[in-house]
Amino acid sequence: MNISEMFYSIQGEGKRIGVPSYFIRLTGCNLHCGFDLKDLSKITQNNLEEFKKGSWICDSVGVWKEGKKYSTNDIVSFLLEEAKKYNYSNLVITGGEPLLQINELKNFLITFTPNYKGTIEVETNGTLDPSPIFPFINNFNVSPKLYLYDDENWINKKWYDFLSTDKIVWKFVVSSRSDIEIIEKWRLKYNIDRSSIYIMPASENREQLLKNSLSIIKLAKEFGFNFTTRLQIIIWDKLTGV
Prior knowledge:
alpha/beta, 7 helices, nine-stranded mixed sheet, about 30% helix, TIM Barrel, about 240 residues, about 20% strand
């Protein structure tokens, strides 16, 4: 697999916020959220604001745009050693978009899971079919992008085949009431359980997050959705890999 970074931290968002977790960030993404650059070499973690188009921009593009290729055996050996070192029991596979490497990811999981006793989460934008790896994963944090709502494929239809499981959490970055109304319209169409929906404020830094949180909390209370902050931004601001 092509990997951008691996690190031990805590889960900063969603249902399992605060859980000590080991993160693997896979390289590459099929979406350019909040920017329209074709040449990713121009963008870094330090100049995101310069290229922002819209109310927010992907806060990890400066990391997932580059990576290193690892063999399945090397990754498995490394992660099992890290599990002994840190005693972690939750692995988070994130990106970019990790399902772009679905075949390599499946091979990794086939080898890794028999030797690992903890839980595994995947963070994804929901545009790709998760079927090949679904049996191996305890929790999917699916974060559809609201700017794609008019595209019928903004969420891959295969996700709806798994609604009867308890593995899916829907996590949305929102900035206004109109965003919430889109989520509610979609929820009613597909009979999505409110308890599986989490909303969090659009922000790229600590100042924006704190400024925007109160209005989003009010909307969460009004519509009955879960509110989640972004703990990693509160603690480390723009810093990644911590």
